[in-house]
Amino acid sequence: MPAPSPWWTPHVHADRRPFLLGRNRIQAALRGFFAGRDFVEVDTATLQTSPGNEAHLHAFATEAVGPDGSRASLYLHTSPEFACKKLLAAGETRIACFAHVYRNRERGPLHHPEFTMLEWYRAGESFETLMKDCGEILGLAAETVGTRTLTYRDRETDPFQEPERLSVAEAFERFAGIDLLASLDRTGATDREHLAASLKAAGLRVAVDDTWADLFSRVIVERLEPNLGLGRTTILDEYPVAEAALARPTVRDPRVAERFELYACGVELANAFGELTDAAEQRRRFEAEMVEKMRVYGESYPVDEDFLAALSQMPEASGIALGFDRLVMLATGASRIDQVLWAPVPETSR
């Protein structure tokens, strides 16, 4: 079978161009949305001393060479989050950022090594405010390209309906018949054996070396996600604290955190936090994540000490990261992320 034509060939570009023009219109509309609400758009550096400290995120590494020949490791950021929070510590109160971000080991219909993350932060405002933002942004994106429906493959979502708000524990019970909170103690510590038994009872695979986090993710991917955001968007909130490394615990229940994810058409679009501002607790979580990364992948990333110093001065805030390319896909009806990227990254696999 001949290789597909490159994205820059005229006939391929002609097929992609309507999606790309839709992308530009949506981005312009969202810039207007944030400007109209007194947000400042910021532009953060791509090169960072740490790409982030989540066990299953993989970064692109590089090296800085100084004028004297000295060398230091740097990384392409996986999110502008650390820099944005430093700006909150500096005194900014409402910021938004369209950032090119980079993630290794990721490529497929919904994943690309380089993509655009839209992040915005509200100092002194609750993460429930971000839920309202999400509803307005999805509706605006659809209106901008002249549609009333978000679509992905054979799934549809009405972005103008009130989103369904569902806790992770409720979703585990509804879609998998699993009592998730029973696998957590009163502090949020996890019980792997209890959750493993629950998965087996629900007919889900359990491997000997699966951690509690592995089991949690399997339920999310296999039972929850295919059922989220169908007909109307879903806000999946109150993640266990063990799955919310950058979020603070809820006041109501210390086992779960102020974290939500936004779903449409079974696709995760955004991830939001009531931001953790306890630098000591954040360090502990980062270090635990890196221990796990070393166990699974044989590598780890440094902690950004400058970020932790800023975190101790950062005001209470809420923040969210939205996959801008995925939003464009659902609004324009594209079936693959590379259809909405002006110049996709070259294929590297053989």
Question: What Rg is obtained from the alpha carbons, in whole angstroms?
Answer: 20 Å
Structural class: alpha+beta
CATH superfamily: Bira Bifunctional Protein, Domain 2
Number of helices: 9
Number of structurally distinct domains: 1
Question: Considering DSSP H and I runs of 4 or more, what fraction of the residues is helical?
Answer: 25-40%
Walk me through the topology.
Layout: H1 10-35, E1 40-41, E2 47-48, E3 60-65, E4 71-76, H2 81-90, E5 94-102, E6 114-123, H3 127-144, E7 150-152, E8 155-158, E9 164-167, H4 168-176, H5 192-201, H6 212-224, E10 231-232, E11 234-237, E12 259-264, E13 267-274, H7 279-297, H8 305-311, E14 317-323, H9 324-332
Parallel strand pairs: 1-5, 8-10, 9-11
Antiparallel strand pairs: 2-4, 3-4, 5-6, 6-14, 7-8, 11-12, 12-13, 13-14
